[in-house]
Amino acid sequence: MEDSLLKSLPWIPADDPAENYHAAAKLSPWVSESFSGPYAFELANDPEALAGFGVPSSIVGSAERHPLAPATEPTPVGTVLRDRQSVTGFGPSQVDFGQLSRILLDTACTSPAGRRGAPSAGALYPLDVYLCVCGVRGLASGIYSLDPFAAELNRLRIGKDPRTFLSETLLFQDLAESSAFHVFFIASFARQRIKYGQRSYRFTLLEAGHLAQAMIMSAQESGIASCPVGGFIDQEVDDLLCLDGVEQSVVYSVAFGTARRRDAA
Ligand SMILES: Cc1cc2nc3c(=O)[nH]c(=O)nc-3n(C[C@H](O)[C@H](O)[C@H](O)COP(=O)(O)O)c2cc1C
Known about the structure:
The chain is of the alpha+beta class. It contains ten helices and eight strands. It has helices at residues 3-7, 17-24, 40-45, 76-83, 97-107, 162-169, 173-178, 190-196, 199-221, 234-240; strands at residues 95-96, 127-133, 136-137, 142-147, 152-155, 181-188, 225-229, 248-257. The strands form two sheets. A six-stranded antiparallel sheet has the order 5-4-2-6-8-7, sandwiched between helices. A hairpin with a 4-residue loop joins strand 4 (142-147) and strand 5. The longest helix has 23 residues, at 199-221. The radius of gyration is 20 Å and the shape is globular. The site of flavin mononucleotide has 9 residues, from strand 7. The site of flavin mononucleotide (FMN) has 9 residues, from strand 7. Residues 81-257 form the Nitroreductase domain.
């Protein structure tokens, strides 16, 4: 169904919880509370404050303990997962267009059999992939959208320099200044809303995680470093791509590039 047809459907109330939450969770240059909670400083400066995070939160007691069976030979996927790490910045070398293509083909594009590398509730695919390309050998710098069916990138008629855009948009300048390309996941919420109602907002965010993880793993396997980035000024991205920020909006992003010498495994 055409997005324009979905947009004209009358079933989203004026005071919608999902739309309100999406707006409340946005980052802006002048409102940073949603990114810096009351204990942000303590967590950043006291590693011991993190002790205890990540343990199961249910208070139901243990009946008996079962240590996991020791791993035998590492599998290829297991090796990729074990070696994965988020980097804080990238090296000066460029990424090849072939490497970028492989990541997109493996994860976001439809295969000849009509499948994609990341799952989608109801196969409704609410996320589109846009890229800021700054340092890819064989592909001009610019802002691109991915056509997942044709498996091609379309350079958009946007005059903004992608590196300047990233610097103005990301909270983490090292990532903005050194990435080879940066992927933004853009949600068209109505595509899933039409089937799943309020639960669709969750699904869309979960799917951004699936897609990002798939790209991170594919990149890792090709020796490309990455960092998931939630620290971006939402409106900068939405404005660049002429999205209304309500029915269509950026939800997540990942920076990719070559490993710095000290980050290399
Ligand atoms: C949802 C999400 C958002 C993140 N946003 C940022 C970010 O904006 N900037 C950044 O430097 N790292 C970001 N990270 C990376 C985390 O800091 C990193 O995953 C964490 O330190 C654990 O390290 P590891 O990924 O190497 O295991 C993000 C990770 C996730 C899952």
